[in-house]
Design brief:
Blueprint: H1 2-12, E1 17-21, E2 34-40, E3 57-63, E4 66-72, H2 83-95, E5 100-109, E6 119-128, H3 156-165, E7 171-177, H4 185-194, E8 198-200, H5 204-212, E9 216-226, H6 236-244, H7 247-259
Parallel strand pairs: 1-4, 1-5, 5-9, 6-7, 7-8
Antiparallel strand pairs: 2-3, 3-4, 5-8, 6-9
Helix pairs in contact: 1-2, 2-5
The chain binds hypoxanthine (HPA).
The site of hypoxanthine has 13 residues, from strand 5, strand 8 and strand 9.
Length: 261
């Protein structure tokens, strides 16, 4: 990770904020601001995702004056990676100097009040992946860092600032699952009973890892479909299509999120 952090700095410079673009969010990368430099993931030591809709490009972007590292694409547990691989790029970005981490994803909605095409601020999460980036030998340094505090994982002040800049932006609790398959209707009923508003296959591990390294975390889901049982079918092609036609709304919320950095 030290290697990737150094490569990111050497090739792309130092940034205040990192934005991770999830499924279908890639078109946003070019529209966030002026792109100063672009590198492939391979050239900065990051693993390339193997899922359609995820490119593998790291960019240095000036987002309204905030130097921002934009990582288009992430790897997932369901691709066969472990928690450390899933968190590698976010950890490298924080170690390279990013103090704010903005995580985006595509999600299914469990609430009629969170309709398809809507960007939603993540207010909290349920980590139901069965994995944790905190498994393994205790991290070096302060023993107090062994168990990271997640009470305010998705910074309330940053969420308020985004909602003030883009009025009406809703919030929801994101359930992160191992994935590889969409959920059954029975699983969605279970998740609703557990307090989930959104469901997806990413984000939760990266959020924990970023917070553990002291970064401030902002999460934004794009609702690409209603969850299983609330609509007829769930398909990845639809996820990408919705994301592609929601670009303007995504750019607006992301710029507001980066501006809080
Ligand atoms: N479930 C899980 N992950 C997803 C979904 C969903 O309905 N939509 C987009 N990513």
């Amino acid at each position: 990770m030290a290697h990737s952090a150094a490569l990111l700095q050497d090739r792309l410079g130092t940034h205040r904020c990192v934005v991770v673009l999830g499924s279908g969010w890639a078109p946003v990368a070019e529209q966030l601001g002026e792109v100063a430099a672009t590198e492939s993931y391979a050239s900065v030591g990051l693993a390339a995702p193997g899922v359609p809709g995820h490119s593998a490009t790291a960019r240095s972007v000036d987002v309204d004056g905030v130097p921002t590292l934009v990582l288009a694409g992430r790897v997932h547990l369901y691709e066969g990676h472990g928690a450390d691989a899933v968190c590698h790029s976010v950890r490298a970005a924080v170690r390279s100097g990013c103090s704010t981490v903005v995580l985006t994803n595509a999600a299914g909605s469990l609430r009629p009040t969170l309709p398809v095409g809507r960007p939603v601020l993540i207010s909290d999460h349920l980590n139901l992946t069965g994995a944790s980036p905190m498994v393994g030998p205790p991290p070096p340094g302060d023993p107090a860092d062994r168990f990271v505090d997640l009470v305010d994982l998705y910074a309330a002040d940053r969420r308020a600032a985004v909602a003030a800049a883009v009025p009406g932006t809703p919030e929801g609790v994101y359930a992160g699952l191992l994935g590889g398959a969409y959920e059954t209707p029975a699983e969605i009923r279970m998740l609703a009973a557990m307090g989930a508003d959104l469901v997806g296959m990413s984000t939760v591990l990266e959020a924990v890892a970023a917070r553990h390294l002291g970064a401030t975390v902002v999460g934004v889901s794009l609702v690409t479909n209603l969850a299983a049982g609330l609509q007829d079918r769930v398909a990845h092609a639809e996820v990408l299509e919705v994301a592609g036609s929601s670009t303007d709304a995504l750019v607006e919320v992301l710029r507001a999120a980066v501006a809080t950095s």
